[in-house]
Here is the input.
Amino acid sequence: MLPRAASRFLSLSLLALAVVGAGQTARAADSTVADALSSQVRKVFEDRRSAVVKVRSSDSLGIRFGSGFFADPTGLIFTHAGIVIKADAVNVMFGGRDLPARVLVADERSGIAILKVDAPTSSIPIGDSGKVTMATPLILIGYPEDLDASPSFGIVGSLDKKHLGRYFSTTHIRANLPVSRGEGGAPVLNLDGEVVGILVGRVDAGAACHILPIRAAEKVRSDLVRFGELRPAWVGVEVEDAPEPLGGSTAKVGALNPETPASRSGLEPGDILLKIGSTPITTSEDVIDAAFFLTAGDNAEIEILRGGTKQSLSVRPALHPLARGQEMQATVLPDETLHLD
Amino acid sequence: MTPEENLLKLLRLKRHEQPPPGYFDDFVAEFRDRQRAELMQLSLREIIWERICDFLQPFQVPRLAYATVAAVAVAASVAIIARPSPQLSGGLASTRQPMSLTAPQPVMIGNSVPVSMASTSSPSVHYVLPTQPANYASPRSF
Here is the structure.
C-alpha cells in the first residue's frame, strides 16, 4: 500500500499524462485531417488539370484571356461568355498546344459559352450541382492572369438568387473561394473531382465568387445539341406575392399577357403556383429557376392551387421575346454532331 | 433743490465713501477665487486658443497672417478634393484610350480592368472575371 502522498502524486501524474496524451492525439488528428484534405486537393488537381484550358480571344480592341474546361472527349469546352463575345478569333491552349476554337454559343443569360476544338481531349466528369449545400468543399482549377494553372480551395457560402439587389438568371452558388482575373470560365469541382459549376463572377475583390451550377450549363448544352440554338422559354405569366402562403407557396398568378401561351393554358389570375416543370415553387423568386429550365416548344406541367383544390395544367412555352433578337446563337452546321455523355 | 443739485450732492457724498472694515483683508484670495471660477467656465477650445495666442504674442505676427494661412489651407484642400479623378470607360464599344509610352492608361472591357497596357506597339490585355453577373432576370414574370 502506497503512502497517501505518493498515491496522490501518482494520480496527478497519470492525470497530467492523460491530458497531454489527449492533446497530442487531437493535434495528430487535426494534422491528419489537414493532410488528407491537402492530399485530396492535390490529387484532384493533378487528375483534372489536363482538361482545364486557357482561352484566348482577340478583336480590334485587344486580347482577352480566361479559363475553360473540356466537358467531353470530343473537344467541347465550357468557358465564360465574356471572353469570346464579339471576338474575331478564339484559341485554346492546353498541354503545350495552341488550337483555334469555334464558338458554338455564347449565352449572355447564363454567362457561359461553348467552344469546340477539333481534337480528342481528356474531360472532367459532370457532377450533381443539386447536392451542393452550404459548407460543401470546392476546388477551382484555373489560369489566374498570366500564371500557370493552379488550384484554389474553399467552401460554399450560400445559394444566391440575387446580388446587389439584382436577380441572376438562375440560382448561383456563392463560394468563399479566392479567385483572380483570368479564371472566368474555370471549372469548380467537388472533392470527388466532378465539376459542379463554372466560375462566372467574383464578389468584390475576389475573396468570394459566384458559380453557375453545372446543371444550368448542361441546360445550355442540351438546347444546343437538340436544336442547334438556345430556346429560352416564355409563358407570359406575371407573378405576384400572396399575402399569406397557400399550399406552401406565396407565388400567385397576377396577370396573363394576352396572346401568349399563358392565355391559352387555362391559368387564371389568383391561381397559386406550386410547381413549374420540375421546380417546386414556394416564393415568387423560385419562378426564376423554374423559367430558366423551361424550353420553348417543350410541354411543361404547371401545378396550381385554385379554390383550395390542386390542379395540373399543361402549357407549351414560346420562345422568349428577348431571345428572338439575340445575336448570340449557335453556329453549329446542320451536319455537326455533338454528344452528350 | 433742483434734480441737478441733488445729483451733485450725492456725487460729493460718494467721493468720501469708504469700504467697510476688513474689506481688503481677503481681497487677494477672493480675487483669485473669482479668477479661477471664471477660468472654469471657459470651454476647452477657448482655453487652447488663449494659450496659443499667448504663445505667439512674443513673435509679433500680424493678426491678418493667421487668417491668410487658414484661407490658403482651405483653398488648397478644396482644390485637391475637387480635382476630377481619371475616368474609366465601360462596355465593349468604348474602350479606346489615348496611348502613351510614358503613362500607360488602363482600358475597361465589360466590368473588369485589364492588367496593363505597356506600350503603343502591344495590344491591350484583359483577364476576364467580372464582378457583375451576365444577366439580371425579373422574378415577376416567366
Q: What stands out?
A: Residues 87-119 of chain B have pLDDT under 50 and may be disordered. The two ends of chain B are 108 Å apart (CA to CA).
